[in-house]
Amino acid sequence: MSTTLAVGGMSCGHCEQAVEEAIEALAGVQDAEADRDAEQVAVDGDISIEQLVTAVEDAGYEPKA
Fold first, then answer.
1. Which residues are paired to 11 by β-bridges?
2. pLDDT in tens, 17-54
3. Is the domain 2-64 a CATH 3.30.70.100 member?
4. pLDDT of 65 higher than 90
5. Does residue 36 contact residue 18 with C-beta atoms inside 8 Å?
6. Partners of 7 in the beta sheet?
């Protein structure tokens, strides 16, 4: 299953990496690809939006669910 979540506050490659790592640490996630220009992260795996929102918030960024 593929999910896309809007994410604010990413301004550099390090930000993208931080978001990706936070999401990829969740059980059920196979891959995450953040795009700061599009202000979103694409996630492959069996994961709820609520879990994604929490992971993004915990990483210090602004989910826009």
1. none
2. 999 999 999 999 999 999 999 999 999 999 999 999 99
3. yes
4. no
5. no
6. 63
In sequence order, the β-bridge partners of residue 34 are 41
Tokens representing 43 are: 């996630």
Strands of 40-45's sheet, edge to edge? 29-35, 40-45, 2-8, 62-64
Distance between CA 16 and CA 14 in Å, rounded?
5
The whole-number pLDDT of residue 14 equals 97
- The helix (run of H) or strand (run of E) holding residue 17 is helix 13-24
Look at the chain and count its residues. Answer: 65
User: Both tokens of residue 8?
Assistant: 């604010």
Q: Read out DSSP for 30-50?
A: EEEEEETTTTEEEEEES--HH
